[in-house]
Amino acid sequence: MKIVLQRVTYAKVTVGGVITGRIGKGFLLLLGVGHDDTEEDCRRLADKISGLRIFSDENDKINLDLENVGGELLVVPQFTLYADCRKGNRPNFIQAAKPEKANALYEYFVEYLRGKGKHVETGSFGADMKVELLNDGPFTIILE
């Protein structure tokens, strides 16, 4: 599982001109699922993200987590995180999970976060999405 996490002031995702997810302060997560990924991987990464302290406190120290700042999550499925560009100019996606498995783990990840009391908005699996965000920092982390 690969996640690109961006700390944002706001983010939204639109499909066919309709907003499917919108958040204020929080994390935009681009989530890719690989062949060998499991529900345990989902839980481990969701737990890590839930406790990640990358917001500034009153002393401008990176010390606060999502809960401390009332942050939200926007989770967008993105199989292209598994692009392999080592040969030629056209990426292959052999390492990405098949859509059925990827969607099931994407949904599991989202529901697991919601079960932890997080406000989670989503993209639309398999759709052509337009993602808009204001990266705060910028602060971007890659998790695997």
Total strand count, please? 8
Distance linking N and C termini: 6 Å
Q: The CATH topology, please?
A: D-tyrosyl-trna(Tyr) Deacylase, Chain: A
Tell me the name of the CATH homologous superfamily: D-tyrosyl-tRNA(Tyr) deacylase
Structural class: alpha/beta
Radius of gyration, in angstroms, nearest whole number: 15 Å
User: Which ranges are low-confidence, i.e. pLDDT below 50, for 5 or more consecutive residues?
Assistant: none
Rough outline: globular
- At CATH's second level, what is the architecture? 3-Layer(bba) Sandwich
The DSSP helix count reads: 3
Global mean pLDDT: 96
Domain tally: 1
Main β sheet profile? 6 strands, mixed
CATH hierarchy, class: Alpha Beta
Strand content: 35-45%
Helix share, percent: 10-25%
- SSE order, one letter for each helix or strand: EEEHEEHEHEE
Describe this structure in words.
The protein is of the alpha/beta class and 144 residues long. The chain has a single domain, classed as D-tyrosyl-tRNA(Tyr) deacylase (D-tyrosyl-trna(Tyr) Deacylase, Chain: A, 3-Layer(bba) Sandwich). 24% of the residues lie in helices and 39% in strands. Helix 1 crosses helix 3. The termini are close together. The model has no long low-confidence stretch (mean pLDDT 96).
Outline the fold blueprint.
Elements: E1 2-15, E2 18-23, E3 26-32, H1 39-51, E4 55-56, E5 62-64, H2 66-69, E6 72-77, H3 99-115, E7 120-122, E8 129-143
Parallel strand pairs: 3-6, 6-7
Antiparallel strand pairs: 1-2, 1-3, 1-8, 4-5
Helix pairs in contact: 1-3
